[in-house]
Amino acid sequence: MRPKHYLVILSMVMLLFGCSEQAKVKKPEEQNKPPLRLNSTIGNLCNLYAPDGIAVEGFGLVANLNGNGSSECPTRVREYMIKYIQQMLGDANRLEAMRMLRDEDNAVVRVYGYVPAGARRGRKFDLFVEALPSTQTTSLKGGSLYTCNLTSRSRLGVEGAKILAKGKGPVFINFAGKDKPNLRKGYVIGGGKFQESNRLYIELKRPNYRLAAVIRNRINERFGEKTAKARSSQIVDLNLPNGYKQNYSKFANLVEALYLYENNSSLQSRIKILAKNLTEPRNPDIEYGLEAIGKPAVKTLVPYLKHEKPLVRLRAARCLVNMGYADAGSVLVKLAKMNPSPYKYEAIEAIGESSASATVKSLLREFLSDDDFQARLLAYKYLSEASDLAVMPKLTSAGFRIDTMLAKESEPLIYIKRKDQPRIALFGINIPLGQNVFLSLDKGNLLLDNPAGKDQIMMLRQHPDQKGVIGPIYADFNVESLISRLCDKTVKSSGVRSGLGLNFTEVVRVLNELDKKGAIKSKLMLGPLPEMPERANTIEKLNE
């Protein structure tokens, strides 16, 4: 019996020993699971991916060319256009589509543009249109681009290519350049509309469900719920929070600078170190680090608003205005109003680009009357984007906007916006015109005159679609009245017209010519034109 007892005891000891050894062996997934480094920034643990800019192209139809169009186009392009027109008409009437292409009031054009980096669905962008080579189209002046599809430039002409954007709108031709304009080319200002939902997301350098959840929670804690969503063990999707909708690159930098976790002691230590470095040579990472921390840094930063160096005050105020500290706005205004002020534009931009409230942004109103025209334009840009009451908009029947602003005790200014959105900004109410106004364009097809004894400007125009003239139309001797009468398309029940029905191209041309003659009693500034992107060379292949 004793040997049996020894065997049983020995077996139990071995079993217990084996269980103990087994408990010490980690499972394979536990061996590969990295520890969470909560004292790291998100940028150290992840790569952040943002959508790049995209070159897009397509073909479209420009209408209302008054016989200056052409029915010519390559066979493959023609077949594509016939199918597309049939879809747009909502039926399979091939003959009607072919009739539209044969009509010399229309022209098939090449359309191209560039969707900016970080663009979200609905983002508008400028387009370029040009008549196809080796066609009889002579001019796109007065034309309007029908809705067209735009694909990636590299996929132009490829059947089934994904539609990334749509394009449409009136064609703008620049008559204000030094050289005579090429009437076969033009712009559609703000005519492109992005259709995709580009993703902004974080990719963990090593998959880890727990870390992905921690990152998601930390971002939502700092920027608000639904900003981040963990889609897998390696991917965290991001939505742009309020205040950063138009500035995805800054939001991306803040996310990368965000620490996963800090106790109060280490946090306060980090804030003090970063704040002291505001006095060092410019380094945007310092401001990103402070703004990523957010409101806990306010108390430490406030004393820097009184620093002896203007640059330090600027950097501290720029951080604080994004943290909701309202007094930072007035500090930025004082910096902008210094004489001289080396940081004038930066201070205005700091308010305009910030996530501050509308009340803080309204501080920019006083710069609408600034002696510095560039400061005025910056203030107008940001106040317009914020729909501030200081900018009084009026949509014309020609589709562009007139923005009127008070300009107290300062020189009136007319600014023509020719990029992103067609607009005419008037810095001043009732900007006067000279009493001796006379202008004849296109061999007398458009005429402006100030007849003797009349206290108004008389305008006539050759009717674009039929024989006869439109007019006479009368405008008061101020710029807003003139613009309104030039572009108004309203026809009263009696058949009398309220205006000449000119488009943005023609209105800008008239204002520019009047300015050359000294007939406008204010400064006229023409904004920059859209930058033309590269084009694909696929058009040659489509001719084969």
UniProtKB/TrEMBL annotation:
Location within or outside the cell = Bacterial flagellum basal body
**Lipid metabolism as UniProt keyword:** no
Q: Mention one GO molecular function.
A: structural molecule activity
For this entry, the protein name equals Basal body P-ring protein
Q: Which gene encodes it?
A: flgI
User: Ribosomal protein: present as a keyword of the record?
Assistant: no
Q: Which domain of life is it from?
A: Bacteria
- Which Gene Ontology CC terms are recorded? bacterial-type flagellum basal body, distal rod, P ring; outer membrane-bounded periplasmic space
Q: Which PANTHER family match?
A: FLAGELLAR P-RING PERIPLASMIC PROTEIN FLGI (PTHR30381), FLAGELLAR P-RING PROTEIN (PTHR30381:SF0)
Signal peptide extent: 1-23
Biological process (GO), any one? bacterial-type flagellum-dependent cell motility
Entry keyword set:
Bacterial flagellum, Signal
- Organism, by scientific name, is Sedimentisphaera salicampi
Role of this protein: Assembles around the rod to form the L-ring and probably protects the motor/basal body from shearing forces during rotation.
Q: Which Pfam families match?
A: FlgI (PF02119), HEAT_2 (PF13646)
Report the principal subcellular site. other
